[in-house]
Structure prediction request, 585 residues.
Amino acid sequence: MTGFLEIRNASRHFGGLKAVDNVSFAVEKGEIVSLIGPNGAGKTTLFNLLTGQLAPTHGSVSFMGRDIGPLRPHQRARLGFGRTFQISKTLVSMSVLENAMIGAFLNDRALPDAARHAAAALERVGLAGVAGKRSGDLTLGERRRLEVARALAMQPHLLLLDEVMAGLNQTEVQEIIALVHQLNTEGVTLIVIEHNLKVVRAFSRRVLVLNRGQLLAEGTADAVLTDPAVVEAYIGGGASS
Amino acid sequence: MSNPDTSFRAPPDTPVAMPRVRSFVGELPLLAFVLAACAGLIVFFTGNSFAQNLLATTFLFAALSTSWNIIGGLGGQFSLGHSVFFAFGAYIAARMHLDLGLSPWLALLPAALVAAAFAMLVSWPVFRLRGPFFAIATMAMTEVVLALAMYFSSITGGAQGLSIPFKAGLHNMIFRDRMSYAILMLCFLAVTLIVMAAVTRSRLGYQLRAVHDNEDTAEAAGIDVLRTKLVGMGISAALTAMGGVFFLMYVRVVDPPSLFSLFDIGVKIALIALIGGIGTIYGPLLGALLVVPLEGMLRAELGGMMPGSNLIVLGFILVLTAMYLRKGIAGTGTDLFARIRGGR
Ligand SMILES: Nc1ncnc2c1ncn2[C@@H]1O[C@H](COP(=O)(O)OP(=O)(O)OP(=O)(O)O)[C@@H](O)[C@H]1O
Ligand SMILES: [Mg+2]
Prediction:
């Protein structure tokens, strides 16, 4: 059996643009991996390759030793993939609780069970107080947390968080960091896209740096963040944005 | 598949009160009240055969629109091709009755099954299309099946259509008085409302709404989007085909252009749902109660003097609801109710 999650020589082209360019890495069970990189580096596209939302132009993805290339996103969700969307894709005709229930229905058939698990997930992200609100009425920060709640309600093995802290205040960021650590001790493996380097240090186990679609560096937070190539990519205008 | 390492349980006493999630059983008292009110209308107009005819037509269209609402409203797949399933029901009942002498009651189940199977088969490729493209494809399907129906005259009677001989009796679903038809259509409406309420208050209903709101989110949450749409379409088409059986026995003379009519059936049942409140349980009934009697009375007033006047009326009501009641009658009413309660 190979690693828990493994992506090999994956590329995704959009016309002439190589949004993800020959990327390979593996994630072990129980890790918290941070994925950083300048705007337009290909981080979200890489997430979409992992979850199946996009098909790779080349390369393969395997999960728990199994090639999951042919699997659609809903099938990967059933294997234990949970994700949030960077641009939150809230179900606007539904209440906050109902949004979280959509995640819970992955494992629950009956409405009361789904509602109970959804409520617990909302509790964990601090949205229990607005459970009855129409989700379209939430603030941007609340919508981000609702994305997390919906994914949590799925009880995932692997959770992919795409910039969930953007637009949150200091206290809320601390709460999410605490939640990530708590989930991790419960056995959830996480890959976190994050721009805030302080937050990255707080997780600090292993950091992957993506630049112009390619894996630029990989290592501990301290090693990676002082790597001249990474500094160059961030400061020297390596970003194509 | 549940994950034993990471089960999230609600704490024994949750500090914040969660909103209640209404179950199917919780829906039943209102459902019973609504049906009783409809029955009250039938009783009130006893002896008035013009009114009984209007009620029969109103309940039939309310039921068709409710059936459409399962895939069109909850699932957000704006089909304009439901007249095809409607016609399937009518022709299956007609052939079983005319060729085999079978009671139309026995045609209900085969009609539902055949229409559901057909609907799922033709929807399979079409469900890849989104938004207006899906609606246009269903319109095209209507035209194709209409052309086929005109061609296969041994089944449909071709341009002359076919007629069911008048042999009154419950067994034949043929009645001398108009009131019996109103009761028949009310029973059909009850079936569609019960199914709609059951779907709405189930996992399938939530998943259909999720698909409607955002297919990417739905997929990421583990919902098989295509399968969900197909199941919703199958249920919707099955009920619509049953409506075709009742309609056949009500009018007893049918030809392909009227059964497959894009406007009088396909578009109308969608518009009624839109006016009443798309995706809500009682919206289509409210829409039908508003539109059908108005149209019927106008037709009686003007007779054949102004063909197409019903189109003008329907268009006018649609514009008014679009301007003042964006979510239809039921949707706006629910919002208002929520605001009044929330404002206390
Ligand atoms: N569906 C698409 N079609 C065409 N180009 C795309 C598509 N999705 C992403 N891109 C392009 O691919 C590149 C990588 O985008 P991606 O969203 O993966 O970057 P990112 O690292 O997530 O950036 P950010 O930090 O801004 O979220 C960008 O240049 C983007 O414009
Ligand atoms: Mg991104």
Q: What stands out?
A: The pocket of adenosine-5'-triphosphate (ligand 1) is lined by residues A 14, 17, 19, 37, 39-45, 86 (CB under 6 Å).
